[in-house]
Predict the 3D structure of the following.
Amino acid sequence: MAKISAAQVKELRDKTGVGMMDAKKALVETEGDMEKAVDVLREKGVAKAEKKSGRVAAEGMAAIAVKGNKAAIVEVNCETDSVASTDKFKALVAELADKIATEEPKTVDDALALKTANGTVKDDVIETTQVTGEKISLRRFQVIEKGDDQNFGSYLHNGGLIGVLVVLDGADEATAKDVAMHVAAINPEYVNRSQVPAETLAHEKEVLVKEALNEGKPEKIVEKMVEGRLNKWLSEISLDDQEFVKDSDQTVSHFVESKGGKVNTFVRFEVGEGIEKKTDNFVDEVMGQIKD
């Protein structure tokens, strides 16, 4: 059996971020071959990642990378905010955003197959899972391309818990960033009311009519009331019609127009939105960790 030195163990730990005993076992198994030991740890990382695949990863962060006329916004999840705040996790998220903006994959599977210095994006995710002990997953991303006469605006709120990417026709980057900050704060659903699907509009109108009739309003004035309430609802969900968060005396569209532009599109990712978070009691949580 090859003698394994402390220096070898340290080198492997530095390369992979694993614990001392895991590093030593891998070196013993491979008789001191550093590259094979890295492979062994990766293989074990796969097993650990699979073991953790049933866990709920609802924390994490969003990131944005701009590459000329292309930009990507991504969301990467983990299980706890403490892992989300580590340099290892942040580096992974930044790497993924940069890689996706550059290579424009179409699906999450395509993104995971992208080549990296360590193999593939999937390999990097597995390694981070191994190091942190938590399930890590690339949840979603979107790549946007703009024209030369358009401007990107990006904003990350609270360390990436909310990420917003905006495209303006005309104006400038500063204006686009202000709009991105507004979107982060107010969370519109559409750029303008013309984008609201007809069936959504019809449903809302039906609800408002029933609401007005149930209030005992005379039928002859219900239509006018509903029209006013429908307009108010549309102004609340449409970015262009919302009161600009930095100046409530004007709408977002008026603000952008004053800078020589128009809102084209936006993407807003809020970390964990739509994910049902698992709630365990303390005993179950401890027993779960023991079983791992």
Observations:
- Residues 46-51, 279-283, 285-292 have pLDDT under 50 and may be disordered.
- The longest helix spans residues 219-237.
